[in-house]
Design a protein that fits this description.
187 residues, mainly alpha, Four Helix Bundle (Hemerythrin (Met), subunit A), 6 helices, 80% helix, 0% strand, globular
Length: 187
């Protein structure tokens, strides 16, 4: 297994998850701001590891596997923390849509790869926009727990709903791309 700078950045993102969780529960008036900083750092490493892997020709099978796992873990765990702290129905629904889509598409990609059809469900620009909207919404929601509460909370919730819509849209696009394979009969 080859470890390189992009892979170390991905591993750093995974290592930041328990740090984020610990900070979230600290009895400190800026704990959620610290979480937002950690999450933003993780989001930047998400972009940076992919950029470096492509730019420096450091892509590996392990990195290609680990990168989306790290993203989904960080997003899902942080959304669960946010819903637990602010059990708003809209945030809970948007979070359930986002987490449910990630599970669905990860499973679809695994199955499509198993039957040699992985190219049909490669990451699209819609997926990149969805991820960006999620990351920004989560940072804003975390910040809004400690500072500029009403303004950031409302903005973060609205952006999370937008990202949930983008999430559904991208899922529909992936399912539509896979439909010809999904609708074939097996014997």
């Amino acid at each position: 297994m080859a470890y390189n700078l992009p892979t170390y950045l991905t591993l750093l993102r995974i290592a930041l998850i328990p740090v984020l969780v610990a900070l979230f529960y600290l009895p400190w008036h800026l704990a959620h701001v610290a979480c937002a900083v950690v999450f933003a750092l993780a989001a930047v490493t998400d972009w940076l590891d992919g950029y470096l892997a492509r730019r420096m020709s450091l892509t590996t099978a392990f990195g290609a596997f680990l990168d989306p796992v790290a993203d989904k873990l960080m997003v899902a765990i942080t959304l669960v923390l946010i819903v637990q702290a602010d059990p708003s129905p809209w945030v809970a629904i948007a979070s359930a849509v986002i987490i449910g889509r990630e599970i669905t598409i990860a499973s679809l990609r695994e199955w499509m790869a198993e039957i040699g059809q992985r190219k049909r469900v490669e990451v699209s620009w819609m997926g990149k926009w969805k991820t960006t909207a999620q990351m920004v919404a989560i940072v804003i929601l975390l910040l809004g727990m400690d500072i500029w509460r009403e303004t950031l909370k409302t903005t973060g919730q609205a952006l999370l709903l937008v990202s949930a819509v983008l999430t559904l849209w991208s899922m529909i696009n992936y399912l539509r791309a896979a439909l010809p394979v999904l609708s074939t009969r097996t014997e």
